[in-house]
Automatic annotation (TrEMBL):
Signal peptide: 1-24
GO process annotations (BP): peptidoglycan catabolic process
Domain of life: Bacteria
TM helices/strands, residue ranges: none
Coiled-coil annotated residue ranges, if any: none
Name this protein carries in UniProt: Membrane-bound lytic murein transglycosylase B
Length: 324
């Protein structure tokens, strides 16, 4: 019996070391005390630290999700069918209509078209339906302690504690993804501190339950990242025979007139717009797949999420929702 218990304890220790390499050098309680000291130096009060950190432990499931993220194997068509289905388009139109007054107010304040705000909202959290069920502080503490990307997540944890100190949300209500993305706009704490706004002027920036703050924060992110509300994101095009695929690169930027001269046309065969917007060719499915000319706003969407598929999905959903 004693030998069995020893073997079980040894296995438990091995699991802990394997799951949390930092634990081999520093027990979690010691690590947490050092974290608290650093947070105090940054102005976080003892009351906030007690409320946020009391009784927390690393979450093995968070480490598992971080290390076993599935390989991205969807084709562009499969991704678009999954992320921009007809049901989401219909729901997006409904949400735009339901929130028209708020969205138009946000559009005037931040110079971002409502359809793009709704598209981001829909793709990130299905219009606020799926925001994640992990306690953000505990998840970030787990990842900061884990050691694989500890510097990044330690910074995000300190940012989360700053948000709590500022009184925008209670610790138990600060929930999000396993990686710490929060609320209906799925902002990391650093993005929250940089871009979240108190659009309804109630003294709190609430991206969890206040639609006006959700819309305003998303629009503020886009505007401050370079959004231009007199432009769209891009458009589908036809490539001429013999088109040089080396030109399909975001680093290759030409005004629309030059692309027209090279033989590119709208998807229906018509001429490109006469406005000389700088544009690049993107082939999200590779050579032989659909082609798009993308503008500066497409690059701004990439600042939100550096994924070609994601940016394409936002643009397509926004176009399908329509109504500027």
């Amino acid at each position: 019996m004693i030998a069995t218990r020893r073997r079980s304890l040894a296995l438990a220790v091995l699991f802990a070391v394997a799951a949390f390499p930092a634990a081999a050098a520093e027990p979690f309680p010691d690590w947490l005390q050092a974290l608290r000291a650093e947070a105090r130096e940054k102005g976080i009060s003892e009351a906030t630290l007690d409320a946020a950190l009391a009784g927390i432990e690393p979450i093995p499931r968070v480490v598992e999700l971080d290390r076993k993220q599935p390989e991205f194997t969807l084709t562009f068509q499969q991704y678009m069918e999954r992320v921009v289905p007809e049901a989401r388009i219909r729901k997006g139109r409904e949400k735009l209509a339901e929130n028209r007054a708020a969205l138009e107010a946000v559009a005037r304040a931040h110079q971002v078209q409502p359809r793009f705000i709704v598209a981001l909202w829909g793709i990130e959290t299905d219009f606020g339906r799926v925001t994640g069920g992990f306690k953000v502080v505990q998840a970030l503490a787990t990842l900061a302690y884990d050691g694989r990307r500890s510097k990044y997540f330690r910074g995000e944890l300190l940012n989360a504690l700053t948000i709590l100190e500022q009184g925008h949300i209670a610790p138990e209500a600060m929930v999000g993804s396993w990686a710490g993305a929060m609320g209906q706009s799925q902002f990391m704490p650093s993005s929250f501190l940089n871009f979240a706004v108190d659009e309804d002027s109630d003294g709190r920036k609430d991206i969890w339950t206040t639609p006006l703050d959700v819309f305003g924060s998303a629009a503020n992110y886009l505007r401050r990242s370079g959004w231009k509300d007199d432009q769209t994101w891009g458009r589908a095009v036809r490539l001429p025979a013999g088109f040089d695929p080396a030109l399909a690169d975001l680093k290759v930027v030409k005004p629309l007139g030059e692309w027209q001269a090279l033989g590119l046309r709208r998807a229906d065969g018509g001429d490109l717009p006469t406005r000389q917007l700088p544009a690049s060719v993107v082939l999200p499915a590779g050579e032989g797949g659909p082609a798009f000319l993308v503008y500066d706003n497409y690059r701004t969407i990439l600042k939100w999420n550096r994924s070609t598929y994601f940016a394409m999905a936002v643009g397509h959903l926004a176009d399908a929702i329509g109504d500027r």
